[in-house]
Design goal:
Shape: globular
CATH architecture: 2-Layer Sandwich
Number of strands: 5
Radius of gyration: 12 Å
Distance between the termini: 30 Å
CATH topology: YaeB-like fold
Strand content: 25-35%
Length: 92
């Protein structure tokens, strides 16, 4: 059974302002989470932010773009992307 990924409306609105490369990286990351689960250790600067929160870099350099996601329910395999944007404004 694969994981289900949700993106809240506030994150979806932010996506329109992001570079195409970052959006493509996010799509690839989401596909990997869907197929293999939320722990994505091979991504650059991947790390756990808490018990069920994770983050990684989508684009290095200036500015650096990151994604933050959270496991909402392990039983039904539900993950929510809570932030996508620059490193400076990341909620961690």
């Amino acid at each position: 059974m694969s994981w289900t990924i949700t993106i809240p409306k506030k994150v979806t609105k932010r996506l329109t302002a992001l570079p195409k490369r970052v959006i493509n990286s996010l799509a690839f990351l989401m596909k990997e989470i869907e197929l293999n689960g939320p722990a994505r250790g091979q991504w650059p600067n991947y790390g756990k932010l808490g018990k069920n929160r994770y983050h990684c870099h989508l684009k290095k350099g200036h500015p650096t773009y990151v994604a933050v996601w959270e496991v909402k329910d392990k039983k039904i395999k539900l993950v929510e992307v809570t932030y996508v944007g620059t490193h400076e404004k990341a909620p961690y």
